[in-house]
Design a protein that fits this description.
Elements: E1 2-7, E2 10-15, H1 26-41, E3 46-51, E4 55-57, H2 62-66, H3 74-84, E5 88-93, E6 96-98, H4 101-106, E7 110-113, E8 118-120, H5 123-126, H6 134-142, H7 144-151, E9 157-158, H8 159-165, E10 170-171, H9 177-190, H10 193-203
Parallel strand pairs: 2-3, 3-5, 4-6, 5-7, 6-8, 7-10
Antiparallel strand pairs: 1-2, 8-9
Helix pairs in contact: 1-3, 6-7
């Protein structure tokens, strides 16, 4: 339920379950982890994570969440694999992302989004804890108070507010989303993998 496409040092991972708003299953998360972990071995220097259709991801599949996915370590495996990718990773957010899908976007180096994207993480209302790495990554981007607005007050943040907060770096028209991600990746694609990895380490 994901697609992986490679070309000229760029790997595009697409969440491909549009009939279910790309709701994430354990198998999908495991596939994302494998695609990210295998990227460096395959000579990939830049990685783009996106979704098919009008929604990036509705978060965990509800039936799977009730069956234990909400607390499954596969979330950490997927986000850690993205965060550990030594090249440049870009979340090209083609629409709204919710809940655990935040873990995947926050683990990427850059985030760009379409104008209609909304961001929310309803863990307080649903009675779950966020994925362990997410609060610190969110605080690093938007600060502690705004992180609490999302995680504790359950606020839904629109694309313009997300841009103002630093949650996303750029808002892009839907028909140009992947082109914009590719343009951001172009300098990394022209460099050696060692150079890309060294600058990423220096930038934290």
């Amino acid at each position: 339920m994901i697609r992986v496409e490679d070309g000229a040092g760029l790997r595009v991972i697409t969440l491909s379950r549009p009939e279910k708003a790309n709701a994430l299953t354990a198998d999908m998360l495991a596939e994302v982890a494998e695609a990210a972990q295998g990227a460096a071995v395959a000579g990939v220097k830049a990685l783009v994570l996106t979704g098919e259709g009008r929604v990036f991801s509705a978060g965990a599949d509800l039936d799977a969440a009730k069956a234990g996915l909400a607390t499954d370590p596969v979330w950490g495996r997927a986000s850690s694999a993205l965060a550990g990718f030594p090249g440049l990773s870009i979340a090209a957010l083609n629409g709204t992302l919710a809940g655990g899908a935040f873990a995947l976007a926050l683990a990427c180096d850059l985030r760009i989004a379409v104008p209609g994207a909304n961001f929310f993480y309803p863990v307080m209302r649903l009675g779950y804890l966020p994925q362990p790495q997410d609060p610190a990554r969110l605080v690093a981007l938007v600060g502690p108070a705004r992180a609490k607005m999302i995680l504790m007050a359950g606020e839904k943040i629109g694309a313009e507010e997300a841009l103002a907060w630093g949650l996303v770096e750029r808002i892009v028209a839907p028909d140009g989303l992947l082109d914009a991600a590719s343009a951001l990746a172009r300098p990394a694609l022209a460099a050696t993998p060692e150079h890309v990895a060294a600058i990423k380490r220096m930038a934290g």
